[in-house]
């Protein structure tokens, strides 16, 4: 039996349980498989569009359906299911995701694609919860969270390069989704090395721990931040075209951004203990605001590059600090289990909300909306700090 059996009191770096380094790495990999699509959507969905499988509007529906399904899947598995039999749950979810990817490869209509990616999203969300459930049990959840985003982004970079250079030119989008299915099947070997059971966190009150002002403001701050990023990223290509930047150059910017995201994640992992989470989130919010305003001001190519890469760097740099924010809001660590759901809902809702502001072929309202989302994220952090201080004063 794994060393994180239910009921174990914690040892060293763990609040409860005591997983080995290999068990931790295995759980983080399982979660990373669930989030591979975040870095591959531009490549895979772009291929679906180019091949004529979906229109522009249908493409947005496919992407949004999957994002929302990932958020729902991660929340349901984390909040409603026990943290036992994790190896079998990992295996079942990997097989379900593999089948959904094969279904996507052979889907004959846009509706079938939407259904297939929604199913994939539910499985992907469950896989994310396999990792976040274990991260929540660490005394250094911020650092483990940094390892998690670094691992997933490195995997996204490697796979995006493989698909873009070799698989899709030879086998099209179908070949890309088959490769994803193969990754899921190969990862079954890893599924049976995660801890069999995770030791229980104090979750008796579950939603009661989340439905408090500190927890809600923390999660809403996370949601607004990712809404900022989701809005701009979804419309980066048409925004660039409006400023005379061709699609191939924007594609190169997206690829470079993935590499910069890895750098941001690694930097945050190295420095998370040295920077106060409130200062980090506020400073990143300012960078997000400035980057958005720059993209709304008809920038030249060099300025566009700088703004886009700055956004890529801060995207994952902020994650360990958002984990600390959620832990501070709820010491039972129930709220931290919902951080991935808040992030993914933000990524899904951002493009939809921003699209309502687009006037014809003028996409400048998109980064303006993103700027407002960044301000809202920092404002909610300020509200969280005020409420927390008042509660401590009353106590």
UniProtKB/TrEMBL annotation:
GO molecular function, one term: transmembrane transporter activity
Superkingdom of the organism of origin: Bacteria
Membrane-crossing residue ranges in chain numbering: 27-49, 61-83, 90-108, 114-135, 147-168, 174-195, 207-236, 248-267, 279-298, 304-323, 335-357, 369-387
SUPFAM superfamilies named in the record: MFS general substrate transporter
Topological relation to the membrane, as annotated: Multi-pass membrane protein
Chief location of this protein within or outside the cell: membrane
Keyword Membrane set for record: yes
Subcellular localization, as worded in the UniProt entry: Cell membrane
Keywords: Cell membrane, Membrane, Transmembrane, Transmembrane helix
GO (cellular component) term, any one: plasma membrane
Alphabetized InterPro entries for the sequence: MFS, MFS_Efflux_Transporters, MFS_trans_sf
Name listed for the protein in its UniProt record: MFS transporter
Organism: Mesorhizobium ciceri
């Amino acid at each position: 039996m794994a060393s994180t059996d239910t009921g174990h009191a914690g040892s060293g770096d763990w609040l409860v349980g005591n997983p080995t380094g290999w068990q931790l790495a295995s759980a983080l990999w399982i979660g990373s498989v669930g989030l591979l699509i975040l870095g591959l959507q531009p490549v895979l969905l772009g291929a679906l569009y180019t091949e004529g499988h979906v229109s522009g509007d249908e493409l947005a529906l496919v992407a949004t359906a999957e994002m929302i399904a990932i958020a729902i899947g991660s929340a349901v598995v984390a909040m409603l299911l026990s943290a036992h039999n994790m190896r079998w749950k990992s295996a079942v979810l990997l097989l379900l995701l593999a089948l959904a990817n094969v279904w996507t490869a052979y889907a004959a209509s846009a509706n079938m694609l939407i259904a297939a990616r929604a199913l994939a999203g539910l499985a992907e969300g469950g896989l994310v919860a396999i990792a976040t459930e274990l991260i929540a049990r660490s005394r250094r959840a911020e650092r483990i969270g940094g390892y998690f985003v670094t691992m997933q982004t490195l995997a996204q970079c490697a796979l995006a390069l493989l698909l873009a250079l070799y698989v899709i030119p030879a086998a099209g989008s179908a070949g890309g989704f088959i490769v994803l299915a193969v990754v899921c099947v190969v990862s079954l070997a890893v599924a049976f090395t995660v801890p069999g059971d995770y030791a229980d966190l104090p979750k008796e009150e579950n939603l009661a721990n989340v439905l408090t002002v500190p927890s809600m403001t923390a999660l809403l701050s996370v949601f607004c931040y990712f809404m900022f990023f989701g809005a701009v990223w979804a419309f980066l290509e048409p925004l660039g075209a409006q400023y005379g930047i061709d699609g191939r150059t924007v594609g190169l910017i997206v690829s470079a951004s993935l590499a910069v995201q890895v750098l941001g994640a690694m930097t945050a992992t190295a420095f998370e203990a040295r920077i106060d989470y409130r200062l980090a989130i506020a400073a990143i919010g300012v960078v997000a605001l400035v980057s958005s305003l720059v993209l709304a001001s008809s920038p030249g190519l060099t300025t566009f590059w700088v703004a886009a890469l700055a956004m890529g760097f801060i995207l994952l740099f902020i994650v360990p600090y958002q984990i600390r924010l959620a832990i501070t809001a709820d010491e039972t660590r129930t709220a931290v289990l919902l951080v991935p759901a808040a992030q993914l809902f933000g990524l899904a809702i951002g493009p939809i909300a921003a699209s309502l502001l687009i006037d014809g072929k003028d996409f400048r309202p998109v980064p303006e909306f993103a700027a407002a989302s960044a301000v809202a994220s920092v404002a909610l952090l300020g509200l969280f700090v005020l409420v927390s201080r008042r509660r401590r004063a009353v106590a």
